[in-house]
Design goal:
Blueprint lengths: L1 E10 L7 E11 L4 E6 L5 H9 L6 E6 L2 E2 L5 H4 L3 E4 L13 H9 L13 H12 L18 H13 L5 E5 L7 H17 L4 E4 L3 H6 L3 E6 L2 E7 H5 L3 H11 L7 H5 L1
Parallel strand pairs: 3-8, 3-9, 6-7, 7-8
Antiparallel strand pairs: 1-2, 1-4, 4-5, 9-10
């Protein structure tokens, strides 16, 4: 489904502050892989997601999505292939527009648009059904402005909007980091449900090691722009936070690490 082959990226090149953000990374994702990504600040987690999304060009290597080489495609041409949810609940939705209007924009993404003045009755009914599955009562608030929603409600809505068109790859960049623990747990439950029911392939960056262990079928750890640990299946299910921290010390050359250092 997804292949990163020897991908490298340096910021800002040719200066005294030059830093290798991605260092010859290669990663293969199978169809329906749900991969959690952890690592300290500056490890390259979000940089890798931005490389896939085309936020900026990579220096070297190639990125293939569902058999299509996308390394040279600009960001807007990759948008039809990807779904993205960001850390800030304010991103991904239009605050001054109604819930139903935001949903309509997401549903029509990539389609040719005519001179239509309003959301159809059929669309409203479909959106109500989809929103009801979130379990947040938003199906009864279709006319509410999105800016009036709580952070958790808005992030759940963004997640739903990002997956309405069933993206080839879902990118979740610390999408629960700005939420309180209870709300974050709810959004992660919704994430699991959507990824499973829609059979999506997903990459989720998180600073929470417990969440990384609990969610998804695969876990990778990054450090200094490299992937230093990759596990899945039964090995992942048996992981503990303590074992993960010990593993970090082993694969990073014996560097000591505290819970705070790894989680940023």
């Amino acid at each position: 489904m997804v292949d990163l082959s020897h991908v490298s990226k340096t910021f800002p090149p040719g200066t005294v502050n030059e830093r290798r953000a991605l260092d010859d990374i290669s990663l293969h994702l199978e169809d329906e892989d749900f991969v959690s990504i952890i690592g300290s600040n500056g490890a390259g987690k979000s940089t890798m997601l931005n490389a896939i999304a085309g936020v900026w060009p990579i220096d070297r290597g190639s990125i293939t999505l569902d058999g299509q080489e996308i390394s040279s495609l600009p960001e807007y041409k990759r948008a039809n292939l990807l779904g993205r949810v960001f850390q800030d609940p304010m991103n991904g939705t239009a605050a001054d527009m109604q819930i139903v209007e935001n949903m309509a924009l997401a549903a029509r993404r990539g389609r040719r648009r005519g001179l239509s003045w309003q959301v159809t009755a059929r669309e409203r009914a479909e959106f109500q059904v989809q929103l009801a599955e979130l379990g947040l009562g938003l199906e009864d608030r279709l006319s509410a402005k999105v800016g009036l929603l709580s952070g958790g409600q808005r992030q759940a809505l963004t997640l739903l909007m990002a997956t309405l068109r069933k993206p080839r790859l879902l990118l979740l960049d610390e999408h629960t980091a700005a939420l309180d623990p209870k709300t974050a747990m709810k959004v992660l439950e919704i994430t699991d449900k959507i990824v499973s029911e829609h059979h999506l392939t997903a990459l989720m960056v998180t600073h929470n090691m417990s969440d990384a262990i609990r969610h998804g079928n695969r876990l990778i750890m990054m450090n200094a722009g490299k992937i230093i640990f990759d596990c899945r299946g039964e090995e992942k299910k048996k992981l503990t936070v303590e074992a993960l921290m010990e593993r970090f010390a082993q694969v990073s050359g014996g560097a000591s690490v505290s819970d705070r250092a790894l989680l940023g």
